[in-house]
Amino acid sequence: MTDFILRRREILKTALVDRGDALFVTGLGSATWDLASLGDRPENFYLWGAMGNAAMIGLGLAIARPDRRVVVITGDGEMLMGLTSLTTIGARRPENLAICVLDNERYTETGRQPTATGLGTDLAAVAAACGFPQTATLRTESDAARLGDLLLRTPGPVMAVAKVVDETLPMAVPPRDGGYLKTRFRTNLLGEKAATLP
Amino acid sequence: MDEHWSVDGHRHFKAAGIRQVAYVPDAGLTKLIERCREDNEIETVMCATEEEGIGLAAGAWLAGQKSAVLMQSSGVGNTINAIASLITSAHFPLFTIVTMRGQWGEGNPWQVPMGQAVAPVLEAIGVKTFQADTAADVSPMIEAGLRMAYSTDQAIAVLVSQRVIGSKVWVAGSSEGKP
After folding, report:
1. Which of A31, A36, A131, B142 could make an S-S bridge to A27, C-beta 3.0–4.6 Å?
2. Which residues, numbered 88 to 117 in chain B, qualify as contacts with chain A under a Cβ-Cβ cut-off of 8 Å?
3. Which CATH superfamily is domain B5-165 in?
């Protein structure tokens, strides 16, 4: 859609100013580049594949670490591929998990083909129907001002869908070695000894 | 048979420190799932499709928790990209128990192609399979599989044969059978 005004990296940058020690998982493609564009950190686990799995990785983390906020940032195509995970998360309802869908209604990486979110599927409504207590669709600047609170401070599980401009942005490429990203994340969270010894 | 294999299976889960168990129900897994659900130290997560369990296992391990994923052989087909793309690429440990259909005495033709493909497909994406053909195989394979998965960062699947679980005879009109 051409009438969207929110810019994905701008709203994310503003929302995550006070991100503290929150843990992040990103869906492959644009969401990975978006989070990396704000600076690479060991709290970020970027997916370069495994389309449809981001939300469930977030759930595994959130269950294991109820003391930490877990934020999944993904795109509409990735979320649609893992749509069943919303039923699973809705049944388990971890308070410390938030999902942010940067929804441009396009499969951006493969040539901007339309997704179902522009053709009828309302992801926030789907999440609400699955039992998420906090859901929102953000379209305006004042809507977007709530994104930080939704992702970092509101008891969840949270589904925040931001309708964003379909735009071409420079790729911000984080490390791509899965083993490195995994071990870096674990070392930061668990300490070197626990992360690397059997 | 003395005890059902799920008794030992649950005991091995405890000894290995399993904290999260993801499952999609299967008749052959019912007892193990129930034991895990009754255990306050294990978080059980019922999944709508098996690939969700693969993501959950990776997330748990990122936070230092060990997990097991329980599924029927049909569900293996749903996990392939998640295992190959996430588990194998990033060298995550993975431990899964698969109760088999489509092999020993199967009565439903729609179960046979996937059941027969489970071991070769898993091996093609880097999963090591332990095939339990008798009830006595299951417990040591769970114990050894858990140790190998979490000592060597490998993906291990214990395939529990239909010969162990029992294959029901499916008869049209019967309320006893299962498709």
Report:
1. A31
2. 89-92
3. Thiamin diphosphate (ThDP)-binding fold, Pyr/PP domains (3.40.50.970)
How close is the nearest chain A Cα to the Cα of B129, in Å?
21
- Model-level pTM? 0.96
Q: Specify the CATH class of A8-196 in words.
A: alpha beta
The CA distance from A189 to B161, in Å, is 39
Rounded to whole angstroms, how far apart are CA atoms B41 and B60? Answer: 14
B47: nearest CA partner in chain A = A88
Nearest to B169 by CA among B161, B178, B156: B178
Q: What is the pLDDT along chain A (198 residues), one digit of tens a residue?
A: 458 999 999 999 999 999 999 999 999 999 999 999 999 999 999 999 999 999 999 999 999 999 999 999 999 999 999 999 999 999 999 999 999 999 999 999 999 999 999 999 999 999 999 999 999 999 999 999 999 999 999 999 999 999 999 999 998 999 999 999 999 999 999 999 888 876
Q: What are phi and psi of A23, to 5 degrees?
A: -100, 140
In chain B, the DSSP E strands lie at 18-23, 43-46, 66-72, 94-99, 128-132, 155-160
